[in-house]
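Table S2 (text version). Query chain:
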Amino acid sequence: MKYLTWLGLAIVSLIGTAQACELDRNVRLAGMSWMSNLMMVEIEKAILEDGYGCDVVVESGDTVPMIAAVVRGDVDLYNELWIDSAPENWVSANEAGDVVSLGDVYSGGVESWWIPRYVADENPGLTSVYDLPDYKELFEDREEPGMGRIYNCPEGWVCGAINNNLLQAFGLEDDYIMFSPGSGAALDAAIASSYARQRPFVTYYWSPTAVLGKYDMVELEMPAYDPEGHRCNMDPECEAPVASAFPKASIQKTIPTALQEDAPEIAAFFADINIPTNEVNTLLAWADEQGAEPDQVAEYFLANYESLWTQWVPADVAEKVKAAR
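Corresponding structure-token output:
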């Protein structure tokens, strides 16, 4: 009898010390189709489940419907809101106080034109987009003799229009063509093939991505970012393209404002999440090389980046997450 009493008290004690989720429902995370988002969602899911005692569901969808879900309050966290390109429904909801941004999830995204490090080392005079005419033979397009090739992003992407306009704005139309691959995968394959053979190339690319984590690339200098000029460059019919760098993207987290009142600890955790972009690139490169699934990347991150993610949560939550590994 004494044994049963002791056992019962022990069980009650364990239950009493278990972390209880602030929400009496599932925590709902928006899951996109690309690895940086899926990886981040799995990291958050593991911490919420093991550290905060929550049940988590991942609501999968495309950008527009998932942002709409946050606006409606049907999703608790959307990880990658490119704030400079936020859709009107989010902007209106933010102004009305229905949704809130929690700051950058990554320490800035980058779009630019790049050359491999081995090309930069062998051609120290090539540092700027304005140096490209002197090197068009180095980047000769085999299908257009006498012209250099710059790899553009795939047809239909906004960056394609921007790059086409920048070619004119930088005065490169007589020396280079913008070569558009059929897809993002085709662009990645062209970069991988050229890099493996140590061939010179110029390409548009962005981060955070596995490509910029895997390959040592050098960004070509561009003129300062011009907000009004960039808006015109986004238009395929821009009548006067402007020599402007791409904006340094702010990739932010957004939640329904009500979550801050309903679950302040969870909202605080979401607010503290931030990974330096170069670390995201490294993680994505590791995932690509290993053929890892998003949950495997999350476990790798929790095991190898403890000094980073433990800054996002209280010490007792961190201990629970570590104990569950």
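Notes on Table S2: The first helix runs from residue 2 to 17. The chain is about 45% helix and 20% strand.
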